[in-house]
Request: fold
Amino acid sequence: MLKFIVRRALGAIPVLFGLSIILFAFLRLLPGDPAIAILGQHATPELIARIHQSLGLDRPLYIQYIDYINGLLHGDFGYSIINGRSVLADFALRFPGTIELTVGALIFAVGLGLPLGRLAARHPNGWLDGLVTVVSLFGISIPIFVLGYLLVFIFAVQLHWLPATGQIDPRLGLEPQTNFVLIDAILAGRWDAFVDGLRHLVLPAIALGTIPLAIVTRITRASVIDVSNEDYVRTARAKGLTERRVNSRHIMRNAWLPVTTVIGLQVGGLLGGAVITETVFSWNGVGSWVVDAIQNHDYFVVQSSILIFALIFLLVNLIVDIGYAFLNPRIRYG
Amino acid sequence: MALRRLAALAAASAILFGACAGSTPTQSPSASAPASAGSSAAASPTSAIKEGGTLVVGLDGDMVYADPALISDSNSSYVDAQVVQNLFGLKPGTVGDVIPVLAAALPTPTDNGLTYTVTLRTGITFHDGTPFNAAAVKYNYDRWKNFPAGPLQDNAYYYGAVFGGFGADSNLVSVDAPNDTTVVFHLKKPQSNFLIAQTIQPFGIQSPTALQKYGADNPSLDKNTYAQGQGGTGHSMVGTGPFMFKEWVPNDHVTIVKNPTYWDPATAAHVDTIVFKPMKDETAKLQALQSGDIDFAQTIAPTDVQTIQSDSSLQVIDRGESCNIGQISMNQDPKTQGADDPAGHALLQNKDIRMAIAYAVNKPAYIQAFYAGLAKPADNWMPPATQYYKPENLPTYDPTKAKQLIQQSGVPASQLTIDLYYPSDVVRPYMPDPKGMAQAIAQDLQAVGFTINLKSEGWRTGYISDEEVGKFPMWLLGWTCDWAGPDNFLLTAFFHYNGTSPSPEFAYKNDALNTVMNNALAATDPTTAQQLWQQAQDMIAADMPTVPLVNSSPPAAAAAYVKGFQGAGNLTEEFNTVWLDK
Amino acid sequence: MAVGTTTLAPVTARVSRGLWGDAFRRLLRNGPAILGLACIAIFVFGAIFAPLLSPYDPTVGNLVNRMQPPSLAHPFGTDLLGRDEFGRVLYGARISLRVGVVAVFFGLVLGVLIGALAGGAGGRLDAVLMRAVDVLLAVPGILLAIGIVAWLGRGELQIMLAVGVSYTPIFARLLRGSLLALRESDFVIAARSMGASPARILLRHMLPNALTPLIVQATLALATAIIDVAGLGFLGLGPGDPRIAEWGEMLTDSARFLQSAPYLIFFPGAAIVISAIGFNLLGDGLRESLDPRLKR
Reply:
């Protein structure tokens, strides 16, 4: 097991290295110019040249790249061309927001998707199954921004049950410490802020979690049906085990496998979906930050943040694979 | 820009600008106000003003730096305007009326326009408790002038632009502080826009003590704690205004609080706290306002005006006179390097074709559809509130006349094809729906016989860098004033020359016009300046190098209990008059 | 850019000539699949006969008639530029279905190429290719698509490519997984022992048996492709000429009229949902008929 982890960790190095080269080259191929992002309509050739010079963009590309990698190896992830902030500091500021949103969405998707999927699998092609299928298909077919606007319109604008935007009501004056709103509220002992933070999380988590919810539901349903037809399940039933025991010991244990794979893959999708969710809910996260940075040609921000993204993605998948081994003793990693 | 202005200044001699900056009388902001607008938001002296409370403002985007000297964007300016004050400002609600703020009076230039002697107000302290005086003013101007090359100069765009460069290049030779209350500015060459240019936020005066103590001059901006605003009150944005900086959580909020010892009790703040929240998405901002997340939206999409008006708990705020222009830009040079659609560029060399386009566009219809009526058809290349403005009686919608002009041009119908570009990912105050506008314009142009190819690029991923060098034959763009002077529109924004040739952006060659505009800048008295600037406007109108569309007043919106707000068309607005009736 | 991922047990060795025939017959007996087919057929029909069904030019309107709620003359109302929304939904099917199909096809071709090479060859090539796929998977799909559009510029083809490429890693992974499982299956071992060349084994024996989960995944991706195009439009990266009707862009452009003109969202939105449901039901049906174990 340890050997497997070490091998995977070593395998990640060329991946990240390759990604850094691709990102670097790709960003420089994009039309447009970081100087334009600073100057806007005030841009003139002289001012653009001056900015290129002070950003070091007039040097040969390979030197810029070596410089960048050298910085990375020394823990310097660069700074934003637009506002001069260190990429790492901004990442630390925004990533907690994305994690809260992503975890909220996952809890929604898995917490609701697993029971729904099992419910649907109980009588395949029954009316309940049909209902679950149609609802989950609906969820999969609505773009996040439409769903987001719609949820806000119904629950915030019309019913006033939940807030429309942001992570917490600024009027509460909660001091940020870890930048995880919920954790900050607990640290400050502010029960009101904690509840407010939770209330802010509900709608964005639903908007972001709907597609994963649909997928988790469908995968759970499919794999439960799949496993129920396996010989060992029939054998278990034939042995006269209770339906409950068959379910927990034989069906769910094995049905978990594909479900965990999908959950792992969805983490990548969630980060992508967060781009739009964060915009619709004015949520302070990394998604909208990276999209802005791409459009601004904010080189260091894009390069470093996507590298960090990739690192996290590889890590999550490693954990999923390890989880596999725990769930299914038949899988061995040599 | 820096070099361009330097060139312009080289020819300039004294225009005695004095207090005449706002020569156009300000219109009543409620002249075209929607039903629930203006009046309720404008100061209503009859009801008793309530003190205290927190106002949450939805801003279009995040602040960039907490040091006004380094900013050139409207979001930072909006926050700064509450905290850091300049020697001179604009009369609230106007875009061009210069008034003294930290100065005691408007100075009259002496020495043929080369010297401005400014008397300061007394008894003012910065937010860190240090005194405001002539030495502090001198410190600030010296600091800007001597910014080292690199990130500080790169971001201090406006100092470089207004004074034509830094250090020895700067048109500001020196600033003297002979005593505590007198500051003397010495210019290299007369600079007619000196006073009005000092009203923009980057010329805000900050505490020298705080600037030094918190490393405001550190060129590594990621380590510049002053510019990054991470220290709290007295560590960043240390000005003299009615509000004090409190905290900035980037991309989440900026908080400012009431200055309890503000120097002018008559204009002290009413609310205790203002929180600015960046909200990029217009629909999100609208819904945040409707649900009570925010109390005030800095701008709203004109298409939402009706929705807000129909809600009695909300109000739409009309900003009155416009300080912008939206237009159909045109480039007449088919030889532009990398030109897209050279045939289109060549077509636009034909004046009849340009005139035909001017007659073919239905400006009032666009204003109804895309601006909710909160705009006026443009009749010049600058808005009416600009100094020396003259109505030009430009063509109005007349498709028949447009078809006649096309016939007269001799261009066969088969060759009437042009690319029209619009930016795909931004809205601008003068252009709230570029995609819709582009389609509407294309419909109108197709109706008189053109074939229009619609194309788009991202604002920063190609649009600005390509239009800047003239790659597009026809594209949608405009300008929001830095200050309401003709030079800012006709020269800076549009038809300046680079040396002896027209700027590649429009490739509009008119040497006579260039001479007139330079002479206008060099004029020694307002009468001559007015006559020359108006001659320049007539010359442009006769040629129609681009087609002006609208001057818009971007609407704001607020909860009904927000009172006392005074909007302005250039979005230079102060919240000290605002109070909450709840 | 979440794509529904169907993880299937690799299809068991079943080299029956009648597989496709059996599957087709099973498909015809599958009620939901037929319903799905009907959903798609409606739009294909609408797209083909749009000029007969709609009297208006979908690209030209009149500002005077803008934003009219549904009426007899305009059953779906008119949009911001005064164009007939009904006509635009019909004509929009042409572009949207095409974009979906071509984008998925792009992704499928690339994914099959990579997956087949990796799963077929194994060893070092497999390792290298899978690392490349990891790189692609590590970058959230929508960022990848944003990058491609920013790089290649705007246009229908670029959008299809962008969306297609973002599906590639999942297709490649899926195919590789099935191929790896098949390598040790009885019939492949049998073929190998009979002296068949590796290429022949891959093309004749393994690929046909590994394609099933891919086909299913592809039908599901057809649905998400249209929505992904809408997502790109939301970020200002929609396809070229906005006058040409396309559901995703219609939805994006009218999202801000949720309150003032909800019908502008409803109709293109319903078109996307119905066609997505259609593709999904069809995909489910295909899966069930191709893998009869799933069906009781």
